[in-house]
Task: inverse folding
DNA sequence: AATCCGTTTAGAAGATTACCTAATTATCTA
DNA sequence: TAGATAATTAGGTAATCTTCTAAACGGATT
């Protein structure tokens, strides 16, 4: 959960999540959306994966990334609890 | 919004928000909950304030901090949107 | 098996963050 | 106004983060 919050702190990583919300994408496709080298994007993907916000799956030469909503839902719960009136 | 996500990345700062959810507190009271110097806590409070996650108000010698749920609600919206099925 | 393509790993530079101690500011009280 | 208390600001250091280039890796194709 701490890893998730840390991963979410970076705007590039949040943008990657938004992209993956639309559809699954390969690492290269994701990288094409940013003015940044592929190794840098790969690092961000690893950070998101470590936080379990995304999952990956090899498909031939490509590695396809997709959103894992489980941890996102947990985070959502944290925020919901925070704006709850009592206790 | 980016400032809020960055502020939320630190566990001490999230814990401060949890404390302030229960009741408003002075900077000193907040600091008493952590094994950390007051200047360090003051730095964290400033970070949270800058992100508009909390507001402060002087009351005599004390400065009372309280939660500002507006930005928390915005973040909640971000997560909600992220787990939404389409669009 | 040689090579190509997509991707990750390694290593390093520069920026940012988190924490400390010391000094300063603001307010209250005697 | 002098002293005490609450909190912040200043300055410094160590650790972490973001990004880059160069090199290595895993499958697919020839």
Result:
């Amino acid at each position: 959960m701490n890893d998730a919050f840390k991963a979410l702190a970076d705007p590039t990583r949040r943008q990657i999540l938004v992209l993956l919300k639309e559809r699954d994408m390969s690492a290269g496709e994701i990288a094409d959306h940013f003015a940044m080298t592929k190794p840098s994007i790969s690092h961000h993907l690893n950070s998101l994966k470590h936080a379990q916000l995304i999952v990956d799956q090899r498909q031939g030469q490509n590695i396809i990334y997709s959103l894992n909503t489980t941890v996102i839902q947990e985070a959502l719960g944290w925020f919901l609890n925070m704006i709850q009136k009592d206790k």
About this structure: The interface with chain B takes residues 2, 5-6, 8-9, 11, 14, 17-18, 21, 67, 69, 72-73, 75-76, 79-80, 82-83 of chain A (CB under 8 Å). Chain A has five helices and three strands.
